UniProtKB/TrEMBL annotation:
Keyword Transcription: yes
Listed name of the protein: AraC-like DNA-binding protein
Domain of life (superkingdom): Bacteria
InterPro entries the UniProt entry points to: AraC_XylS_family_regulators (IPR050204), Homeodomain-like_sf (IPR009057), HTH_AraC (IPR018060)
Alphabetically ordered keywords of this record: DNA-binding, Transcription, Transcription regulation
Single GO MF annotation: DNA-binding transcription factor activity
Keyword DNA-binding recorded: yes
Domain HTH araC/xylS-type: 13-110
């Protein structure tokens, strides 16, 4: 790693920390890029190369992760949607289903006693949403 790579990674980490901290606020790629001291296009390319997903995808994954915690604690789907910064219940439900594999209502109704007994850090790692869909290139070939 050369000094420029280290500097880029430091700036990317600053933007990722912003997303983790401010996930419920309206964030867009230009705002994230500004925190990373990069142009939006360059930021998006480097972020994807470093973290394996686009900045917006990372933001939405964090929002869904936080919504899962709220739903496990008894929040309504609408309240969870609003609390994590989503402005559209339909888009939120679609993204939730894509990442988790069930609707927010189904997730809320499911049994979560085992997760509640885990330390928070373990529960977060265990319930972290992962992409359920095939990558676009594979899906387009089918």
């Amino acid at each position: 790693m050369d000094p420029q790579d280290i500097a880029n990674f430091t700036h990317l980490r600053r933007a990722r920390d912003l997303i983790d901290r401010e996930y419920a606020q309206p964030l867009d790629v230009p705002t994230m890029a500004k925190h990373a001291l990069m142009s939006p296009a360059h930021f998006s390319r480097l972020f994807r190369a470093a973290y394996g997903e686009t900045p917006y995808s990372y933001l939405m994954t964090r929002r869904i992760e936080r919504a899962m915690t709220l739903l496990r604690s008894g929040a309504t789907v609408t309240d969870a949607c609003i609390a994590v910064g989503s402005t559209s219940l339909g888009s939120f439900s679609s993204r939730f289903t894509e990442l988790v594999g069930m609707t927010p209502s189904e997730y809320r109704a499911a049994e979560h006693t085992a997760i509640l007994a885990m330390p928070t850090c373990v529960a977060q790692a265990r319930t972290r949403p992962e992409r359920m869909m095939l990558p676009r290139r594979e899906a387009e070939q089918d």
